[in-house]
Amino acid sequence: MNYRDIHYELWAAVGPQDALLVVDLQNDFMPGGALPVPEGDTIVGGVNAVMELFSAARLPVVFTQDWHPAGHGSFASAHEGRKPFDPCVAEGLGPVLWPDHCVQGTWGADFHQDLKEGFAQAIIRKGYHGHIDSYSGIYENDRKTPTGLDGYLRERLVRRLFLCGLALDYCVFFTAADALNRGYEVYVILDLTRAVAAPEDSVSHALETLTTAGAGFIHSRVLGLRTP
Ligand code: VGL
Ligand code: ZN
After folding, report:
1. What is the mean pLDDT for each group of 10 consecutive residues in the chain (228 residues)?
2. 116 tagged catalytic
3. CB of 190 shorter than 6 A to ligand 1
4. Shortest CA distance to 156 belongs to which of 122, 118, 117?
5. How far is ligand 1, taken at its centre, from the CA of residue 216, in Å?
6. Residue ranges of the domains in the chain?
7. Homologous superfamily assigned to 3-69+109-225
8. What is the pTM of this model?
9. What does the alpha-carbon distance between residue 197 and residue 168 come to, in Å, rounded to a whole number?
10. Residue 24 known to be catalytic
11. For 221, which DSSP code?
């Protein structure tokens, strides 16, 4: 499956019980960062605009932030003789090892300077346990340790989630899949995501799995406000 096979929703009007989730818009995922996602920086302006829409409707806007300790198990550098993007199938890691990225307290872990952080009502950090990764903002890669995001959204009475950010084939994908499993209605704002695209089939796998699982896809320009 490819981007051109995606069926897009014609429009969506946001209102009560909707929330916006902005995934990992951090320097290390931008061109020039440690784990650059091609064109990752080009979505920041669009994300700001959508955050403005949700904020105007007084709806929750939540960020996730990849937040690894130095020497994290997902880093190739933590494994003797391994290089970034080498396959790795260890429990809670993989499918590949990464360059060192988003180390707690470093510039690379900071949000992109143009991202309007003030819109974030909550920031959920993930990936802070040394030997387990967390692509999803909801469950870590052991598939059972919760980050707390589900509880936060539930308490704020959210039923429908709109996702944007980086990377489409990792953190956006796993977060969307977990959200569907937890019973949310999920829309990926596809023009406001970009992919790592490694390994080669990661994007098609993500798009296919999300489509089958019932996610919707939408373009940011057709998002509007529900009027009473
Ligand atoms: C991510 C790889 C490693 C992401 C985070 O935000 O998609 N990808 N850590
Ligand atoms: Zn990471």
Report:
1. 94 97 98 98 98 97 98 97 93 92 98 98 97 96 96 98 98 98 98 94 96 98 91
2. no
3. no
4. 122
5. 22
6. 3-69+109-225
7. Isochorismatase-like (3.40.50.850)
8. 0.97
9. 9
10. yes
11. G
